[in-house]
């Protein structure tokens, strides 16, 4: 039942040039958002830690574009991009990372708990793999209520070694739930290389033990991501159950703010930098005849939007200390 | 008014909730076809079908996670962990996800899930199937904790837990399943966080839950014969903890005894005594006392487990010492 495809072919006609421009716009905003976050962090305006998704933008952008607004999404603590891809506003996302009163979570969650229910972003979960069982519940609710909404759940390669992964995929499989499990395989679980933690190379193969389709695809090609998730969503909406998608991608930065990522061989880093998902999308647009100047303008406009959003969020006020006592039974 | 067992009271509340609210569904290990390890959900599969009464694999993380996700979408899951001790397997789902979802999302998300678990010693189930694990969660803001000590409370609190907008951990003492009592189905729904005075008295305030409430009441009966008037209070929920009702009682008695099954360290009884001494030391005519399980795992052999669990005799002795203090 498992079909592992490293190169699933170019069925890219499903995305129009206009749509592809939107996807590039979204990926560019996320890249610039992460760069701005890094600057804010270095300026001591961001507390704790940050886990940047630079380099992995195509996974979340391609996937979310293939879904409907009412579909639910769960992601990891490396979730800035996933939130933005699902439709969270730039300024309120910045504001949450900055701990502001008008942040998405009123300053209570921060970078690792970004949530925006209004666009179906049901949460960023900061213990590895814990959100996979919750995704099962979101999928269950769709089936239980007779809705054809699906749930998409992003997680890292590291999560495939935690018990919750296996419990969640097993239950989703036996109940045939509309959940799309997307493994963002960036080859490192925090600081440890995948081959040191995992005895198999193709994580999609794990789907076989749940009788679930598993595919491995190029997670740096936004069109490939779009097609794979669109197909999985069609299956899920038709009542045919879950799919495991392994999206091969790479983190341009270290694991978190303090990590320069020196444990990664330079040749490997260089190789992946040459496969930058934004460059790949730009090349695809050029091939379709979009002028270089239009692509440059797109980037310029995105940079302005991101900078303006960051500036607004920085100026917003901090939460009242007393608000810490709200939103919980205490 | 009708007389039912503790088990029957919970079952009736679950059945009524399933009947009246389509959002309610049950999930857990062996709860459907087998009716649950303690037969609490017996017959519910037949009445409500396998769409709403679901057997799961032995996957505690998946059970709680599914409840969390379904509740996020507006359903009212009632999940069962066969033995409360198994909450250790899914501690992250309960303590980090279920409890914190509302807070870390700044109030966007509510998680109205109820988690049922069989707790308590006395059944010869040994160390991994006998604990009063409700104490593990006292330090986890975000969950409410219900510990019913009678069929009426089990019935009322189950209804209150299912309609509550916050997650509730609901503990069912496995030695109380056959205890009988009256329930009042037509009464106003109960509110979580209100203690009840099980037995009025004037000399000593005795606070206990579940099996220890039963034993405390027995001890109070014995003491009444020798002229000592014990007021027995059952907090019914540990979070919220109704300290006010205890303080009102202490205004009359001036003497506090907590009887609990669990070890002292980090327990609800220790918390209650700390709250009373912090807020109302002047009400106390004697140092508060606690009768509790030993700070050891629950032993297996009958004579050891009997010695481990507080008995009515130990309660009587503690009250007498408190009266002399």
Uncertain runs of chain B with pLDDT below 50, 5 residues or more?
Answer: none
Shape-level CATH architecture of the largest domain in chain B: 3-Layer(aba) Sandwich
Strand residue percentage of chain B = 15-25%
| Count, helices of chain A | 11
Order of helices and strands of chain A: HHEHHEHEHEEEHEHEHHH
Question: Biggest interface, and residues per chain?
Answer: A-B, 44 and 40 residues
For the biggest sheet of chain A, the summary is: 6 strands, parallel
State mean pLDDT of chain A (0 to 100 scale): 94
Give the biggest sheet of chain B.
7 strands, mixed
Count of spatially separate domains of chain A:
1
Indicate the CATH architecture of chain A: 3-Layer(aba) Sandwich
> Helices and strands of chain A: which structural class?
alpha/beta
Total DSSP helices of chain B: 11
N- and C-termini, Cα separation of chain B? 43 Å
Uncertain spans of chain A, ≥5 residues at pLDDT below 50? 1-12
Here the CATH topology of chain A equals: Rossmann fold
- How far apart are the first and last residues' alpha carbons of chain A, in Å? 49 Å
CATH class category label of the largest domain in chain B? Alpha Beta
> What's the total count of β strands of chain B?
14
Q: What is the CATH topology classification name of the largest domain in chain B? A: Rossmann fold
State the share of residues found in helices of chain A, binned by percent: 40-55%
What does this structure look like?
The complex is a heterodimer of chains A (330) and B (325). Chain A is α/β, with parallel strands linked by helices and 330 residues long. Helix content of chain A is 42%, strand content 12%. Chain A has 11 helices and 8 strands. In chain A, the strands form 2 sheets. A 6-stranded parallel β-sheet of chain A has the order 2-1-3-4-8-7, with helices on both faces. Chain A has a two-stranded antiparallel ribbon with strand order 5-6. In chain A, helix 1 packs across helix 2 (57-65), helix 1 runs antiparallel to helix 10 and helix 4 crosses helix 11. The longest helix of chain A has 26 residues, at 17-42. Chain B has helices spanning 6-20, 44-48, 60-72, 91-98, 101-104, 151-163, 210-225, 243-253, 268-280, 302-308, 312-324; strands at 2-5, 24-28, 53-55, 76-81, 114-119, 144-146, 168-173, 180-183, 196-199, 204-208, 230-234, 237-239, 256-259, 289-291. The termini of chain B are far apart. Helix content of chain B is 36%, strand content 19%.
